[in-house]
Design brief:
The chain is an alpha/beta fold. It has ten helices and twelve strands. It has two domains: 137 residues, Response regulator (Rossmann fold), CATH 3.40.50; 156 residues, Reverse transcriptase/Diguanylate cyclase domain (Alpha-Beta Plaits), CATH 3.30.70.
């Protein structure tokens, strides 16, 4: 069975030894690639990912330690486990290799079973490293996602919005934000309970996220039943049109909370933004949010289910 996710790069200038290593490693189920020296291996590694590198120490063009030093200087997506094959096994040589970043040594002539054992050890380390990275990504995602609605939380908003504003100011681009508030939401919680209220919040967030531009626009829960939609490269006029489209979509489509019950909701919107022109260089996130919040308040006092934009 081929272990295609874990290919091994064999770097050896002697063709007989190189073929022998590839045969041994390939026979154990690993895909292999070959390089005659460190320079060729360097070019291969620039274009392909090899979690395991088995390299000779003494080679022309670039030796094993130079190759190892270069690998450790790169920002690789994943760790590369390096096994060096050498006839030089003095303590000084071994220590020098470990200082350079070598993970393991094997002396020539090598034992086939021992070589495979070292590669399998490297694979376990690579697997653990990838598992830890995946766990870190999942933990990080949980720390910035609102558990009820599935959109970003306020922590993410407070970190991301200032960066969006600075980018818009730096390049003189438009940026708009839309503050949304579900009308009479307390009545839903009081009538149906908080579990149904959470279902309504999740349904609202999902509908908005399905409409806004993927990987450009984003949405965060500001608190309670309030949300903030961030629209880069969008002026206030177009942001208000987008908000009104969302308003109509929500008002015209009831939310099913059970086989029998469907809930009708409306939403009020306040819109503010940067024009990307002179006069917006010193605007900060709190000002932008404050303007949107003031517009939202006006929308609420105007009867709800409407959009008010900043002038």
């Amino acid at each position: 069975m081929r272990k295609k996710n874990y290919p091994v790069l064999v770097v050896e200038d002697d063709p007989v030894t190189r073929r022998l290593i590839c045969k041994t490693v390939g026979g154990a189920g690993y895909d292999t690639a070959e390089a005659e020296n460190g320079k060729i291996a360097q070019e291969i590694l620039k274009n392909s990912c090899f979690p395991i590198v088995v390299t000779d120490l003494m080679m022309p063009e670039m030796d094993g330690l130079e190759l190892c030093r270069w690998i450790r200087s790169q920002r690789n997506a994943h760790y590369i486990y390096i096994v060096v094959l050498t006839a030089r096994d003095s303590t000084e040589d071994v220590l020098k290799g470990f200082e350079t970043g070598v993970d393991d040594y094997l002396t020539k002539p090598f034992n086939h079973a021992e070589l495979l054992a070292r590669i399998n050890t490297g694979m376990r380390i690579i697997g653990l490293e990838r598992s830890l990275k995946q766990a870190y990504r999942e933990i990080k995602a949980l720390s910035i996602i609102d558990s009820v609605t599935g959109c970003y939380n306020r922590r993410y908003l407070e970190e991301k919005l200032p960066a969006e504003i600075k980018r818009a100011q730096r390049y003189g681009r438009d940026l708009s934000i839309v503050m949304c508030d579900l009308d009479h939401f307390k009545m839903i919680n009081d009538t149906y309970g908080h579990q149904v209220g959470d279902m309504v919040l999740h349904a609202f967030a999902s509908r908005v996220q399905n409409v806004i531009r993927k990987d450009i626009d984003w949405m965060a829960r500001y608190g309670g039943e309030e949300f903030l939609i961030v629209l880069p490269e969008t002026n206030v006029e177009n942001a208000a049109k987008k908000a009104d489209m969302l308003r109509r979509m929500i008002a015209e489509n009831r939310i099913g909370v059970s086989e029998r019950d469907q809930i009708f909701i409306t939403v009020s919107f306040g819109v503010s933004g940067l024009s990307g022109k002179i006069g917006c260089e010193n605007v900060v996130a709190s000002e932008l949010i404050g303007d949107a919040d003031a517009c939202l308040y006006r929308a609420k006092t105007a009867g709800r289910n409407c959009v008010i934009k900043a002038s």
